[in-house]
Amino acid sequence: MKLRGFTLIELLVVIAIIATLVALLLPAVQQAREAARRSSCRNNLKQLALAMHNYHDTHTVFPPGAVNPLGDDPNGRNGGGSPGIMGNWLVFLLPYIEQSVHYDGYAKIVSERAEAVDWFGNNTYVSQGITVGRDPLPVTGCPSHPVGDQRLSNGTNQEDLSRGNYAACYGRGGYGRVHTTDNAIGGVFGNNSKYSMRDLLDGSSNTLAVSELQYRTPSSDGPSTADTRGTWAYGVAGASVFNTQNSPNSAVPDGVWGCRTKPTEGMPCVQIGSPYTEMHAAARSYHTGGVHGGMADGSVRFFSENISLVIWQGLGTRGGQEISSDY
Predict the structure, then answer these.
(1) Do residues 220 and 292 lie in contact, with contact meaning Cβ atoms separated by under 8 Å?
(2) Is the predicted pLDDT of residue 120 greater than 50, yes or no?
(3) CA dist., res. 30 & res. 32, Å (int)
(4) What is the structure's pLDDT at 263?
(5) Where are the beta strands (DSSP E) in the chain?
(6) Residue range 221-245: mean pLDDT, rounded
């Protein structure tokens, strides 16, 4: 019996076929993985939106975007004393996302500080505790983010604060409480805000509450080049706050305090030290074509980066009386 083996040409043909199949299947596998990451990212936003509602059920208002005794100053006197910015919207939601231990840590820190105030009449006011804010929270990170844990070191007693990918909407204007009194400019959140469902004149299903952010590795070159974007415990533009002033994933630079511009990474920025009310940051994500957004009614939608800017700005306000077409 004569045995017959493969010829070299046949072997090369088989290898070529296998390589072609792998090349065809690899993008599909990558797309499937990204679809799973997007789904997880969407679920995180859903959890935050539900936590926001549970907070509202307890306190009859949404949490403040940030508690800031100095109003619009994003740094206050954190670098040289108190008060400065303290608890932000994510801090107030900690008990509603199964992070009571972190919340208790904030409450303990603020109870030991001279400027502690009774924010809701039951001493639930919390601070941006230095040691607590270092911990990354699972619900604040989008799996589509391509890098690992990153921290902020900016020399303001907020060293090594951990990063996250979600932010609260301050409306279509700049950062600060100046615009929160204007329903056509302000959003669900603002500095020292206490808005309720009845304040959402546009309707909760037409009002954007939370969306996504990008962040990157902090610089080792010193505080002057630190980028504040993504710090989940810090209630300032780009850190845990965004505006609908510019479209999602906009090429227009963010105006933030603490800036390292990276246009090639989709994170252009310019540093704005004053006036603080002019600070702004767009919703940004690592998803192709747009960002996820959580509405004030608890639903989560995907918004194209090509959405009409007029519609996007209207969705960011709580009472502009805009008529929004399909988006």
Answers:
(1) no
(2) no
(3) 5
(4) 81
(5) 151-152, 161-162, 166-169, 208-212, 241-242, 254-256, 269-271, 290-295, 300-304
(6) 77
Q: What is the pLDDT of residue 252?
A: 94
pLDDT in tens, 300-310: 999 999 999 99
Task: Find residue 166's DSSP bridge partners.
Answer: 212
What does the pLDDT read at residue 85? 65
DSSP, res 5 = -
Cis peptide bond upstream of 275, omega within 30: yes
How far are the Cα atoms of 12, 39, 108, 230 from residue 248, in angstroms, in the given order? 48, 19, 37, 16
Q: Are 53 and 298 in contact (CB under 8 A)?
A: yes
Residue 210 and residue 48 in contact, taking contact as beta carbons nearer than 8 Å: yes
- Distance of alpha carbon 62 from alpha carbon 277, whole angstroms: 22
pLDDT in tens, 255-299: 987 777 778 778 888 888 777 778 899 999 988 889 999 999 999
Nearest to 170 by CA among 236, 74, 241, 274: 241
CB burial of 203-216 (b: ≥16 within 10 Å; e: otherwise) equals: ebebbbbbbbbbbb
